[in-house]
Amino acid sequence: MRWDKLKQEIKTNEEQLEVIKKRILTSTPNTIDYLLKELAEKASKLGQLERELHELGPKPIILSIEFSDYVPGMRLYLWDEHEDLEQGQVVLIEEVNNEWSDYHFIVEKGVKINWNKTPVSCAIHSNETTEFLNRMFIHFESEAKRMLAFEEMYGWSQTEYERYLWEKNETLIDLLIEYEHERVKEIL
């Protein structure tokens, strides 16, 4: 995914900047000009990468949901390349066609994506609310692991553990989908 790649490039550039700064402190007058030029180039590259990341926006939450839950205005994450679209790209759904045996989306630039032929997931824009719901997934999983670890005290088995996680995750996914539907209604 482009977002992850950009984050890694930014981290690498930040580390390289720190190395150059340390080298400047211990360098001779003959090498300072070269190192300052190198520092300026790295700082410029870092600024460019941060602008690209800012343009992409926050990393979306990726969910697998039922076709019937999609509505125009939602976004799709592409797991593979499709026509002019890249793997890892997030595209806006313009139309959802759910006629019998012809489930597909029309997305940006009029591209048709067939439901059963191109692997996609729902991409939900991150904000404080969605990030909170996403953190709840992690919280419920750690709670379930804790209860399973003390199964004598809580009387839990692997089956209760899986049922608890399934119920909590289903609830959170339903909340995320409903929140996304409300967001789409506001902008359309």
Structure description:
The structure is a single chain. The protein is α+β, with helices and mostly antiparallel strands. The protein folds into three domains: 55 residues; 64 residues, Roll (SH3 type barrels); 60 residues. Helix content is 57%, strand content 16%. Helix 1 runs antiparallel to helix 2 and helix 3 packs antiparallel against helix 5. It starts with a helix and ends with a helix.
In short:
By secondary structure, the protein is α+β, with helices and mostly antiparallel strands. The protein is 57% helix and 16% strand. The model has no long low-confidence stretch (mean pLDDT 85).
Low-confidence stretches are none
Residue share in helices? 55-70%
Strand content: 15-25%
Largest sheet: 6 strands, antiparallel
Q: If you consult CATH, what is the topology of the largest domain?
A: SH3 type barrels
The structural domain count equals: 3
Helix segment tally: 5
Number of distinct beta strands: 6
Helix-and-strand structural type: alpha+beta
CATH level-1 class of the largest domain:
Mainly Beta
**What would CATH call the architecture of the largest domain?**
Roll
Mean pLDDT: 85
* Arrangement of strands in the largest sheet: 1-6-2-3-4-5
From the alpha carbons, calculate the radius of gyration and give it in angstroms.
23 Å
Distance between the termini: 28 Å
What is the overall silhouette?
Answer: flat
H/E element string? HHEEEEEEHHH
